Amino acid sequence: MKLIDSHCHLDNEKFQGDRDEIIEKIGKELEFAVNIGYDLKSSEESIKLAEKHDFIYAVAGIHPTDISGYNQEMENALEKLARHPKVLAVGEIGLDYHWMTEPKEKQQEVFKRLIEVARRVEKPIVVHTRDAMHDTLEILKKYPDVTGILHCYPGSYESALEVMDNFYFGVGGVVTFKNAKKLVEAIKKIPLEKLLVETDSPYLTPEPYRGKRNEPSYVEYVARKIAEVKNVDYEEVVRVTNQNTKLAYKMIKG
Length: 254
Known about the structure:
This protein is an alpha/beta fold and 254 residues long. The protein contains nine helices and eight strands.
């Protein structure tokens, strides 16, 4: 059984020299990959890749560090992209208090507006949260009809419980790092039925390739680490996380 990479950035410039080869590898080694937008341009590029390849899907969104100049025109453009049939969700959207390129209030306002876009197009959301877990959860709890994925989940099991009915939790290469004790503890407790595997490539490369460019096929190392942490068979992790990805993105019904 082939794995799914639920979150990657194939349009990134780090793939400029060998993108075709990386995509060919996805077609051979993975069931499919989901390419995630972070602004209008990357969302458009995501859709182009998805239109060209059966085994690539797109997500369209505006990352919290890319919301400078956000206005109604941008929102309208994003909503149009989000209605494309191969766009599975609106994302990645959310809050980032680490880089703080925009004030918290502005980030929260735009996050809510983008959730409303997802509501209008009737698709899930892919959430980015960094150093902002409390505010992220408080906003999400105001939208009980909205579902989706907390990408590269950085929180605790207790935080996950607050939104577990509506959200899945993406696990990437960080789980393989030696200093990932908090994440490992959370993953021990979060049910396998609520976890997805992702690479966030070209970022967050798992061991044993840490320090090098990440790529979608490395999602295997994430799945194997989850199998180790939860003491279950690797094949079971593949089967369940693949199912979870399709449920989270509403490709199938639960």
